[in-house]
């Protein structure tokens, strides 16, 4: 490994750790705030930080009114649908389970790419996709999360997490298309502000409905809430984004994707060590199958991509 590669690799590893701990902080803050209060405050903070960076000219924006429809199509999937499902999923399951199930996003991307982008899925990829789906089934059937919540709540939480996985998959597809015309900074800026507006609007309605409007002020007086929001709004939503883009600018995308597979491992370790969560035999089997499925889908997808790039060169050699 050269010195030039060391920094982007380190950035990718730090990014994976930040994403992995985000499930733990979400779980903690949900003990004080309603789900939409949490998401609203998180994205309001992220949007304000990005706006401040733009005002200080640390980042450059090139967003026009005509570009908003395209960017909003991306932002509806993530953060609106993704974080709605993820937050409720974390609420009704455990931080460790959430991290493992959310790791299915690359697998779903491979499936959606086959149907929407007409990208080929190899037999090996299909085998690992099946292993990942089987892993989810193991975690649902044998989960010990029922000790902390009613069985029906846990099943509902898993369904919410799977909804987040689908939203994350569709986001990846539509953001790939948007990236052909817009910069990652522009896409993220619109995502953060749409999330701030939508989630705070719904959060205020939810708070009024449950007569918990005072939760906003009361929650912000609690150190775990402030710490969690700073982590989720600044580190997980802004810093991790810059680390991801820095890594992608220096390394091939498949190599960066491999580091994202560390996220569920970090989430599981954080939940067990810091939150006292317990993983039984079924969860360990299911989690292992999911991680194996994610690794295999990415690994053989990278191999196929490399072969596709080599095909023109081989054909030219025969001309």
List the main descriptive attributes of the protein structure presented here.
319 residues, globular, 13 helices, mainly alpha
Helix share, percent: over 70%
Structural class: mainly alpha
Major sheet: none
> What is the terminal separation in angstroms?
37 Å
- Give the count of structural domains: 1
Secondary-structure element pattern, one letter each: HHHHHHHHHHHHH
Average of pLDDT:
81
- The share of residues in extended strands comes to under 5%
Rg on CA atoms, Å = 20 Å
Shape field: globular
Low-confidence stretches: 144-148, 313-319
Number of continuous helical runs: 13
| Strands, count | 0
What report would you give on this structure?
The chain has helices at residues 3-29, 35-55, 68-92, 95-102, 105-115, 123-141, 151-178, 184-209, 215-219, 223-250, 253-260, 262-275, 281-318. It is mainly alpha-helical and 319 residues long. It has one domain (3-318). Helix 1 packs antiparallel against helix 10, helix 2 (35-55) packs antiparallel against helix 8 and helix 5 packs across helix 13 (281-318). The two termini are 37 Å apart.
């Amino acid at each position: 490994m050269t010195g030039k590669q060391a920094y982007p690799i380190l950035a990718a590893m730090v990014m994976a750790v930040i994403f992995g701990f985000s499930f733990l902080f979400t779980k903690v803050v949900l003990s004080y705030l309603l789900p939409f209060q949490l998401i609203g405050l998180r994205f309001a903070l992220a949007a304000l930080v990005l706006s401040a960076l733009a005002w200080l000219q640390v980042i450059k924006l090139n967003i026009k009114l005509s570009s908003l429809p395209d960017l909003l199509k991306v932002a509806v999937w993530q953060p609106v649908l993704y974080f709605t499902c993820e937050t409720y999923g974390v609420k009704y399951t455990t931080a460790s389970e959430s991290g493992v199930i959310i790791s299915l996003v690359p697998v779903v991307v491979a499936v959606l790419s086959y149907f929407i982008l007409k990208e080929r899925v190899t037999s090996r990829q299909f085998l690992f996709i099946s292993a990942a789906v089987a892993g989810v089934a193991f975690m649902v059937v044998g989960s010990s999360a029922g000790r902390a919540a009613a069985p029906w709540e846990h099943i509902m939480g898993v369904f919410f997490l799977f909804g987040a996985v689908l939203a994350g998959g569709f986001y990846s597809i539509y953001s790939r298309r948007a990236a052909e015309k817009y910069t990652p900074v522009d896409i993220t800026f619109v995502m953060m502000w749409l999330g701030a507006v939508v989630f705070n609007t719904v959060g205020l309605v939810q708070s009024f409905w449950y007569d918990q409007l005072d939760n906003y002020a009361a929650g912000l007086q609690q150190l775990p809430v402030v710490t969690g929001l700073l982590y989720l709004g600044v580190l997980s939503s802004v810093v991790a984004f810059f680390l991801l883009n820095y890594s992608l600018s220096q390394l091939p995308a498949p190599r960066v994707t491999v580091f994202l597979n560390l996220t569920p491992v970090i989430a599981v370790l954080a939940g067990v060590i810091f939150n006292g969560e317990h993983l039984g035999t079924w969860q360990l089997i299911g989690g292992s199958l999911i991680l194996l499925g994610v690794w295999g889908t990415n690994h053989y997808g990278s191999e196929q991509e490399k072969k596709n790039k080599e095909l023109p060169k081989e054909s030219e050699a025969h001309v």
